[in-house]
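Intended use. Records like the one below are meant for learning the mapping from a protein sequence to its folded structure. Do not use them to infer anything beyond what is encoded.
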Amino acid sequence: SASYLQVVSVLRTVKVDTFEKTEGGQVNSWLLQIMDGETFACGAAYYKSKFALTSANCLDKFRHRLDNLVVRFTAPGEGQDSPGNDHAREVGIRFVFVSQDWRRNRNYMDVAVLKLSNRLRGNFHNFVQLCSKPLSSLERLTVVACAAGPEVVLRTEQVQILGRLECEQQYGDYVLDETLACAKEMVPGPDCMFEPGCPVTSRGGTELCGIVAVGPACHKNKSESLPGIFTDVRGVRAFIFRAMRGR
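Structure written out for the chain above:
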């Protein structure tokens, strides 16, 4: 059943102090959640009718429970256009593709391509596009805290990309592999915005430029303002294409 799927209000973006907060059921219609029962597991992005993208390390934590996981829209109203047909409001994961170069608990190639058991009803063409420009050409991106439940405000915030040297200096001994990028919140809020698998976007939320990686950013004292890390989608797009072709 999907009793926790509820219709919420339409999209509303408001300015709160110095950052933007986005509310409602129509935020990025390609934005997904991977759920373990009623518990958030990972964020994901709906890329093609039966494919989604997420963090390999995040999903790996549930490798012994993959049959229990379901994928659903973050905005619950996306899957409610045809009452009485519940089976496609949330779907299972049929296959998980990871790069042969990925290693558990390392952040190199931290991306997983999911083949879904069915297409999610309610989304016929609004799939995410992969980032069209290199990160070096983008001054700011938007991170989406996609773990919010149906009754909780879905938050977005602008982040600024940091140079690798600056990022490594702040992370100290933590190894940052070459497919990662690093960003800091323009104005740090009280909660962590970097939830694994959730998207980092550009061009008004239409392009996926990063996938939040598993890292220590959300495990530190918030006052330390440790930058968030994410997989650079342009650096892994060749793997994404190969995985979708089954190679």
